């Protein structure tokens, strides 16, 4: 499929984006108006508030976890001991979230954004560090971790109330990064990035010549890896992913090989015998600059968004057939999240920008002054 490129004008890009996705959904572009440079969502029967949550960094280099209203207004924030990475809504505490430290992480923190308070800070087990991601339900919190003493990835299950470790399983590879529940909630899917690290050399990648990334499926009850898939290029690190409501997994890749190599940077899997590369022109793969950040699926729109901050670009793909749809200029854009109010995907950037994707043609983005949003974005619904 030939590449389609958005123009530099935001209003033009919104209009063209809608034309690309019109066949997929009627939900995009409804219920939103631009007011005073911000966002104002139409009133609904629900009185719930919807907050964006993200790790962030200010101009002085201080790290925070923060919640923002959709017009860019700060709700509250807490200072973090080190740079954060992903953040998720607490499964049942309204206004609470859990933020995970960036690799090699030494904390995760439960935050009460209603009052701007740290509820609890948790350190990794001896000989381990966090990989920046986790998922939770009414009973447990599950984190990806590195058992660096053994050089193996771990999936650690904790009690959601006390955060005490209940169980620990081998992730099926090295460097487990993002993970997600499958629709049946009996399996989880794990992006084993394949990269060996150690906190004594915090950001150094220790095994690039021998790395073996894989996409693994684990049975939660037993901790057994029931299936695992590798790529034909062992230096394509599988990092971030999302799962559709029908169980299709889409993952973004980060290439660890030569800068001159031309490689695909996104895959999908939905029961096939092997991982499937998404379809795009060589020009698109080249522009993505060997790096993807967040992956987000909009089921209603049959759309996948993948952010490419090193390329200052967002990319859009068909959930149905894995084909490339369009790209959009978005400087240092990385965070992506599906809204909890049915309004579609929202993106954030290291420039402090909040961008609603594919909504009203005249929709304005917002800039939060003095803030760099980190690579991942979450949503809170607060009753």
UniProtKB/TrEMBL annotation:
Against Pfam families, the record matches this protein to: DUF1513
Q: Which Gene3D superfamilies match?
A: YVTN repeat-like/Quinoprotein amine dehydrogenase
- Write the protein's name: DUF1513 domain-containing protein
Organism source for this protein?
Thalassotalea euphylliae
